[in-house]
């Protein structure tokens, strides 16, 4: 397995796009979070905004770069025919996929941690200027606070699970454009459709199966009881999607010719 | 397409472009996967619409599931309206006028914020008291009125959607307001005055199909008090509370032929349900003493907003899914040429590179337009039918609006496809182009409607990003004369429909321009 990991690490490391994409994951996450924190103001009468969730808004953009990274990790090999070399050198297909998943998770978590920490820091610096002061019942976002730590750590896990989802879908679909389109569609379509369905029962049900809505429940720190799923159960929904995608991709990898 | 228009020194330039178009169309139609993808795009658009329509059930409050709701009045312009007010009226045949002096406009608001624990005296901004000439007492019929409002001064309004501002200010015994409405043929003119002798014209109106014998009289109404709070799943929850207004009129003069003589009074559009306030404190009605009329009423004479029903664009949710499929195909339409090396043959056959890209853009744009048109033409009527069958109230819109939503959706998909194609030509990497296109087209919409972003930021997102184009689907316009919660979550876009689409077209044109530059400068 160490050989597998080393091989996958070398391949991913030496592709020119990887470093840029990792930078994009961190940069886009921090940038959108900072913009969101700047855009909101709290009047002196007080406001019910979930500042932790607001300060982590950038994850919704950063995940696109993560999906791109994951898809390129697989479909790049199909595009160039490299996959045949890979499978000749390492015939254990499940092990190849596992090594890919491990390397990708590690890289995503590293970039995601930078992005999430940067977002929390940006929120800490920007929010007090917009009226979110301790005097108004909004203490500064701090990782010492249990809920904020869960939201921040959970956001890193969220990004990692998105990477695994992208890996699974790309292994199954092979074509890079179709793969990244499917992943982004899966993420962004549920919130849009769920918003339009008028029936509150259906709305909650859609929310509960949506990888993005349910997964991002991990960022909520206020009014948890009104959420259709708890934070960890929500992240579990995304984990189930990722596991299903990886399983599907792994099976197709075993069954199909490369 | 005559040869006479072709410059003599450049023979066959047009024919050359037609050939290019034909070549690109052949390339598109002979890839079976792409043709299938177009069918899939149309299908998912329709199916997602059907799914969300099937999932939306509603029944009227208080009744069992499927209870039919009372009919919603429709105004002369075809839009759903509120038409509830207290009306003291008599007939007026032919030309004539009504003049009144308004000495007081007061009211109550039940349980307003922040504590929601008391009934307080006060007026909502669009409480109305004044004079009106209306086509009978049927809700939704044509009218013109001159009214004093709670906080927006004197207004002349007609046929629900039209509103003209007069002088600001209120009315009191010390400084009463005189209002006058005259009819001359089909033209109604509104005047106001502070002393009853010096009159200022407020506006004129031509209400649709006003009969020669109309009802003329006094009106008082008061719309609900609106508050908005953040919803749990993003978005917002709106609440409306009962309010009531009372106007005191004297010096009431009607000139003209008034058959039937005496005043009668009606609560137009009354539902029969009464609030406790109306039951135990002050019902809607009129008291007359010594030539003064004290009129009390609740309701509104105004178009309905998106919160009071479903909108036809709710049937087009699937467009997002269809758009993603179209984006993928549009990107592959150019990037696969690079991958297979076909681009070198293409550029050999058509060395004018800008024209090659233009031909590609036209072909993919037209294909996306036709796909979107077919999907929207099927989805809108079919899903509207299902929504209505499930007991939902779908706000009616005029034919031109429906047509604009359908054609606009097709145009939106065409522009999105051209934008994606240009990104594909610019990046030459399909996966980067697809990601960029999907993110800028869909993410702003997600952030604007289903996140904790404040409304101001959401509106800027939908002004500046390509997602602004979804404004073309907005079927219910924003009315300044109705207090409403006009935000993207409720289907109100910050830009006008075609202006929103123009934003996406500008992005597509910019990307296409950059792509042509890049194609010219670099080796293929």
UniProtKB/TrEMBL annotation, chain A:
Signal peptide from the UniProt entry: 1-36
Keyword Transmembrane helix: yes
Domain of life: Bacteria
Keywords: Membrane, Signal, Transmembrane, Transmembrane helix
Keyword Transmembrane helix: yes
Transmembrane segments: 61-80, 101-127, 147-170, 177-198, 232-253
Protein's recorded name: ABC transporter permease
Organism: Actinoallomurus oryzae
From TrEMBL, chain B:
Keywords: Membrane, Transmembrane, Transmembrane helix
InterPro entries associated with the record: ABC2_TM
Major place of residence: membrane
Domain ABC-2 type transporter transmembrane: 315-516
Compartments, as annotated in UniProt: Membrane
TM segment ranges: 31-51, 316-336, 357-387, 407-427, 434-453, 495-517
Name recorded for this polypeptide: ABC-2 type transporter transmembrane domain-containing protein
